[in-house]
Write a structure and sequence with these properties.
By secondary structure, this protein is α/β, with parallel strands linked by helices. It has two domains: 161 residues, no CATH class; 251 residues, Spore Coat Polysaccharide Biosynthesis Protein SpsA, Chain A (Alpha-Beta Complex), CATH 3.90.550.10. Strands 3-4-2-1-5-8-7-9-6 form a nine-stranded mixed β-sheet. It starts with 30 loop residues before the first helix and ends in a 15-residue tail after the last helix. The C terminus is likely disordered. It comes from Panacagrimonas perspica. GO terms for molecular function: glycosyltransferase activity. InterPro entries: Glyco_trans_2-like (IPR001173), Nucleotide-diphossugar_trans (IPR029044). Belongs to the glycosyltransferase 2 family.
């Protein structure tokens, strides 16, 4: 039911949502089952265990073989991304963009401190036929008052749809609290446009970001899903500047990697904080999975599976000209909780799609992307094991220690060169020039990351492993109600 223009408060029942299959791994997961059903995972786990135990049998370089495996794998990934993205360049938007209408969905629960900035940047770029939906997931803060005072959206009904009396095409769908995935599922069947855009309430669009999305979907009928490029922003906090610096370079490299996998037609993630989908694609695959910890990641797995199973020409892309800022954790505990959930959701999705791993029927996705993701399931164990063995070698100097330090030095040089190259390539891709401060920050982050931020990231992933195996995963909000934005 498209929004009225302008509108009065109208009741609308929440539509029925297709029942999706179970993810297949609820509750506690016996470790033996992972080895039995997922051969590649078992092989990688065996290599890790063998390498980790090698110090008991040798004092030579092989005693750090777990570290060597980790370094070799990580270096190969850098080389792959570098090769695939070596020709990336900015794509200019036309002066006038096809006026493809969009339905922008912003799922929000207790986000009164950040919601206005998100809505305002959308309104600044709103097309004449766009719909903007704020999906209020049972907020208990001042969200209703904010929407009424700033955007003239009536605070009633308590459940249903209200339209703004001031901004045509802007409305709110209020519903009881049930999570982000279910909130989006309640909203997308109501929209009029054929393309929806999902934004987190703490995402702030750059100018012409919506034009870039319109242009991409209008010129490419095969485009099924896409995401913009996100830059993380941390709220003021004692460690906020440090965490923002590390996460900025982490996001930069991650989006460059997505561009590389896009060129293999094997992209598996569009960030739900800034993502776009064709409505008919969502309808065919059943919308979002409410039980998933990472609903955006899980959805693309089903999209790619459906595409290959039915011989469709659907494409998944990253739109470099569509840019935005989004909030990121500014403290250690919030960061660990986020990565714990992300990694547990990654494991949940990876093992639920184990039949795709190595399956040539699914093209580069089955032959390359998912096998590499199987290796990634144990990357935090490799990384932490390598660090522990390094500390052991340094505290008890052996014949292998000098050789290990040479290997680490060579790896740091490779990382340093790659990260500087990646900084330049990424900014060429998004059509910007990095300033001197960014270059300096990149140098510091590159040299410091392996000994601090990377270990924290691995620790969060290790906690995700524990939660996945025990079925004790919980979703934690990034901001507590009343916390500073």
């Amino acid at each position: 039911m498209p929004l009225s223009r302008p509108g009065n408060a109208v009741l609308s029942p929440c539509p029925p949502i297709p029942v999706l299959p179970e993810l297949g791994l609820p509750g506690r997961i016996p470790v033996a089952r992972l080895f039995r059903r997922h051969g590649l995972f078992g092989l990688v786990a065996t290599c890790w265990a063998t390498a980790s135990l090698s110090p008991l049998a040798s004092e030579e370089l092989v005693s750090w073989s777990a570290g060597l495996l980790y370094i070799a794998y990580d270096t190969w990934l850098l080389g792959f991304v570098g090769w695939k993205t070596r020709h990336l360049s900015a794509e200019a938007l036309p002066v006038t963009t096809n006026a493809l209408p969009l339905a922008i969905l912003v799922a929000a629960r207790n986000e009164e401190r950040v919601l206005a900035a998100c809505i305002d940047t959308v309104l600044d770029q709103q097309g004449p036929d766009d719909e903007i939906w704020i999906v209020d997931d049972g907020s208990s803060d001042g969200t209703a008052a904010l929407l009424h005072d700033r955007y003239a959206i009536p605070p009633e009904p308590a459940i249903g749809v209200s339209s703004s009396l001031r901004h045509p095409g802007l409305g709110v769908l209020r519903k009881p609290h049930s999570g982000k995935a279910d909130s989006l599922n309640r909203a997308w069947p109501l929209v009029g446009p054929s393309v929806i855009l999902t934004l987190d309430a703490d995402t702030v669009l750059h100018p012409r970001a919506l034009d870039a999305i319109r242009h991409a979907f209008a010129r490419n009928p095969s485009l099924a899903a896409a995401c913009g490029v996100l830059t993380p922003h941390c709220a003021p906090a004692p460690l906020g500047t440090v965490f923002e610096g590390f996460q900025r370079f982490e996001y930069l490299r991650a989006f460059l990697a997505r561009a590389a996998w896009e060129r293999l037609d094997a992209l598996l993630l569009v960030s739900g904080a800034f993502a776009a989908y064709r409505v008919d694609v969502l309808a065919r695959i059943g919308g979002y999975q409410p039980r998933s910890l990472v609903e955006d990641y899980e959805l693309i797995h089903r999209l790619q599976r459906h595409r290959h199973d039915h011989g469709l020409d659907w494409q998944v892309r990253v739109i470099a000209a569509a840019q935005a800022h989004t909030d990121a954790p500014a403290g250690l505990q919030a960061f660990l909780r986020q990565r714990q959930r992300w990694f547990a959701g990654f494991l949940e999705t990876q093992f639920a799609n184990g039949d795709l791993v190595g399956n040539p029927r699914y093209g580069a996705l089955g032959r390359w992307m998912l096998p590499i993701k199987s290796v990634d399931t144990l990357q935090p164990l490799f990384g932490l094991t390598a660090f522990v063995l390094l500390v052991d070698l340094l505290t008890d100097w052996r014949s292998a220690t000098t050789a290990v330090l040479w290997v680490i030095g060579a790896k740091l040089l490779v990382d340093f060169g790659y990260h500087l190259w990646a900084l330049d390539r990424y900014h060429r891709w998004i059509g910007q020039r990095p300033g001197a401060a960014l270059w300096a920050g990149s140098v510091v982050a590159t040299l410091a990351e392996p000994f601090c931020f990377q270990l924290i990231r691995h620790l969060g992933a290790l906690r995700g492993w524990f939660n996945f195996l025990t079925g004790r995963v919980e979703w934690f909000p990034q901001r507590r109600p009343g916390a500073p934005s």
